Amino acid sequence: MQVAVIGLGTFGAKTASRLFEKGAEVVAIDREEGLVDKIKDRVTHAVVLDVTNERALRSVNISDVDVAIVAIGDHIEMSVLAVTMLRKLGVGRVIARATSNLHEHVLHEIGASEIIRVEEEMGEIIASKIIAPHVLQRYNFAAGYSIVEIKLGKKFEGRTLVESKIRQNYALNIVALQKRVPFIDEYGKSAYRVDINDCPVPMDIIEADDIVVLVGSEKNFNRLFADLAET
């Protein structure tokens, strides 16, 4: 996959480097040479250019990318111009960062495929960590529904999946279990390996340190979180 990331502030640089780590071919773009220099060793290509310059964008074959991410947040006019230029040059999927309701509305109007509200999403993450500190990861895949990686801890320790009654009591489905399994390495030392069971059965046992992957609605997760908070 080819991805262009435009705007290499904290959010843009982190996004670009993580995409590269995950195997994407990443073109990182900013008009500030210092920001480009900082990331050049952590992406496929790092380019200094003005995204409002059509000829400059064409020179990096921007129309060939699968996705363009406009990570510019502080300069709304530049963000809008970048999205407009990308759409003009035929980029099919343009994901843009918005910093206000008006900014988001304008980006939708000019053809951004998806909008990211970084501050709102960070607020949600922080709130979730406070309310449900046992949650390790949370992925929203549809309105009101999530995939959650969680440690259930002492409340469910030693119970089989069927004994836990998570499905009956909370209407949540367990789709995977991740366990730390002790073993002796080649040097005779104690170590751990991670085993992932992506097809758990009713008689599988939940241990306190297991990471359990659950799928379900937000309201049902909130019921589970409330019960875990009491233990």
Could you describe the 3D structure shown?
The protein starts with a strand and ends with a helix. The protein is 35% helix and 29% strand. Strands 3-2-1-4-5-6 form a 6-stranded parallel sheet, with helices on both faces. A 5-stranded antiparallel sheet has the order 7-8-11-9-10. The model has no long low-confidence stretch (mean pLDDT 88). It has 2 domains: 117 residues, Rossmann fold; 102 residues, Regulator of K+ conductance, C-terminal domain (Alpha-Beta Plaits, 2-Layer Sandwich). It is an alpha/beta fold. The longest helix is centred in the middle third of the chain and has 14 residues.
Domain count: the total is 2
Q: Determine Rg (CA atoms, Å).
A: 22 Å
Element-by-element helix/strand order: EHEHEHEHEHEHEEHHEEEH
Secondary structure: helix percent: 25-40%
Q: What's the story with the biggest beta sheet?
A: 6 strands, parallel
Tell me the total number of β-strands: 11
Low-confidence segments, given as residue ranges, are none
CATH architecture grouping of the largest domain: 3-Layer(aba) Sandwich
Strand content: 25-35%
Summarize model confidence as the mean pLDDT: 88
- Helix tally equals 9
CATH class of the largest domain: Alpha Beta
* CATH homologous superfamily annotation of the largest domain: NAD(P)-binding Rossmann-like Domain
CATH topology of the largest domain: Rossmann fold
Estimated structural class = alpha/beta
